[in-house]
Every structure is written in structure tokens, then in C-alpha cells.
Design goal:
By secondary structure, the chain is of the alpha+beta class. The protein has 2 domains: 31-161, Phosphorylase Kinase, domain 1, CATH 3.30.200.20; 168-449, Transferase(Phosphotransferase) domain 1 (Transferase(Phosphotransferase), domain 1). Helix content is 40%, strand content 11%. The strands form 5 sheets. Strands 2-6-7-5-4-3 form a 6-stranded mixed beta sheet, sandwiched between helices. Strand 10 (219-222) and strand 11 form a beta hairpin. Helix 1 (9-15) packs across helix 2, helix 7 (184-204) runs antiparallel to helix 12 (353-364) and helix 11 (329-342) runs antiparallel to helix 12. The radius of gyration is 23 Å and the shape is globular. ATP binds at residue 115.
């Protein structure tokens, strides 16, 4: 199993509490001890970060490049009343920041999620400020909406819109036997929406924002399984000008960290793309990024999946068994092609998130029946190619991305559906063109710098 030196904060604290306490002092040297005047603190951060400006994707006064922080301020008394004094029956879950409670705002009656900072936890005032700043300035349908905050005395709380369906992790892992598994189309829709959230951070925010903590537990689901990214405490502003990366202490969750970031602390938007690839593999396989209950050699999802990408006869063994074969074979090949590219060892070989969005938007809009029989080796030799054919394809310079998209594009419909197939082929060709162009540009930049 691969070992990247970035662990979940709670796990690291258990393993080495003295080191974690030392790291807190290292990471937060300038964190204020009293931020009751939060707005002025955020203004200083805005000035330091070159006046963050955004090209919005939604309309309204929030969307102007000079949008000011619109989050409400709450007193601790108000939020205690909203959560019935943080009663256990209002408890929703717990993360690195602290406990999350369901609440009703008095007056408006709005249902909200209230996150209370654990003063003994790893995340502190700095992460609190970063999250208020980021979510007050960044607005997108696939980012969770920050309603307000509380900086009352020593209390630090964040108030979000309530996400009725919980997190993606709740629907993928340790699911009760009586709950129906997410179907294929819903999984692709979630992946496409989450990718659009990352695309907004990488391509629309100026300077770009690197999320740095992309994982299934940080993807919240609204009605209709609309995904929204949450928990921006670890987000960093990306490189600007001629800089290729930002250097920072390694933070994140074991199993999701890009290898180059874990080894060097050099952070780029491609680090987020790797993490996205891990989550996308979770959606396809139903497995956890790290699962100690699996047999040796299968505990790390990426380490287990990578060898299977080289043999199309084993592609179906990657699929979540709870789907019971209800998925389009073309869609599976294309999804695995995207996942394979995202988790490449070399950052330059990974696609940009905009290319991923292009491919996944096509997958999410497929509406195919899932009751078709799985292809058999004796009846579909081209789809289930031999290793020799794989090697020949590699010798001709065609990537796994090209192979999988080509397989996914094979015609199975009757001539009467030729117009529909033409549209599909056009979408596949567009995805291939975008990804290949961006990949070649990234590779050329990488070669020039080395």
C-alpha cells in the first residue's frame, strides 16, 4: 500500500500528539487570539492576497468582482438557541474543524448546519478565517453557501445552508443493507458537479484557489443529489505570475494526497485533480480510499486499481458490486479513462479540471438502459482486448485515454439511431481533443522546466 506523508488530522494526533501540537504552533504563528473584529481581519487578508477578484457564474450583487463579505454575524446565544443548546439529537457529524449540528434560525425559521470549532482540535483561528473569507467571496452552485459566522469571545462557529442528504461518504461507504445503492447515473452526476466546483476554484477565481482537501466526506449532497464542496479551512491561493506552484506544509487526508505534494510540499491545481481522481474511483468502485479491512495489497484504492487499468478484461472487476451490472459498458470505459488520467504519478500528465468537466458532463448526460448483458470474450473480442493488443496500442502512441474513449464510442445501436450516435461521437471527439491538447501543453511546460 502506498504511503504518502499526509494523514487525516485526527489520526495523526492519535499517533503523535506532541508532534501535532508542535505543528499547530508552526502553522498558525500569526493567527489572532481574539478575532471578534473578524471583518477587519478578513480585509487584511484580502489586501495581502492581491485583492481577490472573481468572475461569477451566478447573477446578483454578490457576483461583482468587488463583492464584499455578505455573511451574517451571529451571537453564540443565537446559535445555541437555534440548536436547542447543541443537544445530541441535533448532532449531524464531526470533522477536523469540530462538531456539526442541525439548527433552526429564530425569526426566519431557516434550517441550517452549525459547525462549532473544537478549541482543542487541529484546526484553529487561521482555518476559521480562511473559510469565512473563501466562502464569503466564492459563490457557485457547486460550493456550499456560508450563511454566517460567530466570533463571540472564545467561540468560533460557522453557519451553512443545510444539506439534506449528508455527505457523499454517507452514501458510498458503510451503507446499511436496507438502503439502495447510488445508481450509475447519479454517481456520474455527482462526479460532474463536484468537478465543476473545482473548475470554478481553479479557472474562475483570480488568483486560483487550490482546495487541498478534496475527499468524499467534504462533498455534501443537496436535494436531487446536487453536490457541493464544503470545508475550505485548508484552501490555499494558487500560484500567480510565472510561479508554477506554492510551497506549503503538507496537509490533507491520507489516501487523497497527490504524491508530489506529499513528498515535496509543492502544491498546484493538479494536486486537486489527483484527489478528484481518487474520489471518482470511490464512486466507480464503492471502495474507500484507504480501507484496512481489505486484504493486503488492496487497502490503498489507487495502488489496487492501477494494475487493473492495463487489462480491459478486468475493467468490470473495478465496478461497485452493489450496482449488480446496471451500468453502460461504454460509460464504464470512459469513466475509468478519466480516473486513470487523474491519478497519474506525474502531475504534468494529469488533465486540467476543465477537461475533466468536459468528459464528465457527457457521461452525466447519458441515459442508457443498464439491463444489457455484459460483453463476453467470445462475442466481443475487440472490447476485451488481449495484453498483446494493449502493448501494440502503446507502441503506436495511443494513450489509455484514447483507447478507452475509442472503445466507449463503438456503435451498438441500430442504423435508425445514427443521428443520436453522431452526437455522442462528436462529444467523445471533443473530450479527446481537449484532453490531448491540454496534456501536450502541460507536458511541454514540464519538459521546459526540467
Amino acid at each position: 500500500m502506498g504511503c504518502f506523508p499526509c494523514f487525516d488530522s485526527r489520526e495523526e494526533e492519535k499517533l503523535n500528539p506532541q508532534k501535532v501540537r508542535a505543528d499547530r504552533h508552526e502553522v498558525h504563528p500569526s493567527a489572532p487570539t481574539n478575532i471578534s473584529r473578524l471583518s477587519s481581519g478578513v480585509d487584511r487578508l484580502k489586501s495581502r492576497n492581491n485583492n481577490v477578484s472573481l468572475r461569477r457564474e451566478s447573477s446578483g450583487p454578490k457576483d461583482s468582482p468587488d463583492a464584499q463579505i455578505a455573511a451574517q454575524t451571529f451571537t453564540f446565544r443565537e446559535l445555541a438557541a437555534a440548536t436547542n443548546n447543541f443537544r445530541p439529537d441535533c448532532f449531524l457529524g464531526e470533522g477536523g474543524f469540530g462538531c456539526v449540528y442541525r439548527g433552526h434560525l429564530q425569526g426566519s425559521g431557516q434550517v441550517v448546519a452549525v459547525k462549532q470549532l473544537d478549541r482543542n482540535g487541529v484546526q484553529g483561528n487561521r482555518e476559521f478565517l480562511v473559510e469565512v473569507l473563501m466562502l464569503s467571496l466564492l459563490h457557485h452552485p457547486n460550493l456550499v453557501n456560508l450563511i454566517g459566522y460567530c466570533a463571540d469571545g472564545e467561540q468560533r462557529l460557522l453557519v451553512y445552508e443545510f444539506m439534506a442528504l449528508g455527505s457523499l461518504e454517507d452514501h458510498l461507504h458503510d451503507v446499511p443493507a436496507d438502503r439502495e445503492a447510488l445508481d450509475w447515473n447519479t454517481r456520474m452526476k455527482i462526479a460532474a458537479g463536484a468537478a465543476k466546483g473545482l473548475e470554478f476554484l481553479h479557472d474562475k477565481a483570480n488568483p486560483p484557489v487550490i482546495y487541498r482537501d478534496f475527499k468524499s466526506s467534504n462533498i455534501l449532497l443537496d436535494q436531487g443529489f446536487q453536490p457541493k464542496l464544503s470545508d475550505f479551512g485548508l484552501a490555499k491561493l494558487g500560484p500567480t505570475g510565472d510561479k508554477s506552484h506554492v510551497s506549503t506544509r503538507v496537509m490533507g487526508t491520507y489516501g487523497y494526497c497527490a504524491p508530489e505534494y506529499a513528498m515535496t510540499g509543492q502544491l498546484t491545481v493538479k494536486s486537486d485533480v489527483y484527489s478528484f481522481g481518487v474520489v471518482f474511483l470511490e464512486l466507480i468502485t464503492g471502495r474507500k480510499a484507504i480501507d484496512s479491512t481489505q486484504p493486503h495489497g488492496q487497502q490503498n484504492l489507487v495502488t489496487w486499481a492501477r494494475p487493473l487499468f492495463n487489462d480491459r478484461r478486468k475493467f468490470t472487476s473495478l465496478v461497485d458490486p452493489r450496482l449488480e451490472g446496471r451500468y453502460p459498458m461504454r460509460g464504464l470505459y470512459q469513466a475509468l479513462a478519466v480516473a486513470s488520467m487523474c491519478i497519474q504519478e506525474q502531475a504534468a500528465a494529469r488533465p486540467l479540471i476543465g477537461d475533466v468537466v468536459t468528459a464528465l458532463s457527457y457521461l452525466a448526460n447519458q441515459h442508457q438502459g443498464y439491463d444489457q448483458p455484459r460483453p463476453k470474450p467470445e462475442t466481443n473480442a475487440r472490447i476485451l482486448s488481449t495484453n498483446t493488443e494493449e502493448q501494440q496500442a502503446g507502441a503506436s502512441g495511443r494513450s489509455r485515454w484514447d483507447l478507452a474513449l475509442e472503445v466507449g464510442s463503438e456503435k451498438e445501436e441500430s442504423p435508425k439511431e445514427s443521428a443520436k450516435m453522431l452526437n455522442r461521437e462528436r462529444a467523445v471527439a471533443e473530450a479527446k481533443m481537449w484532453v490531448e491538447k491540454r496534456r501536450q501543453t502541460a507536458q511541454a511546460a514540464f519538459d521546459a522546466n526540467n
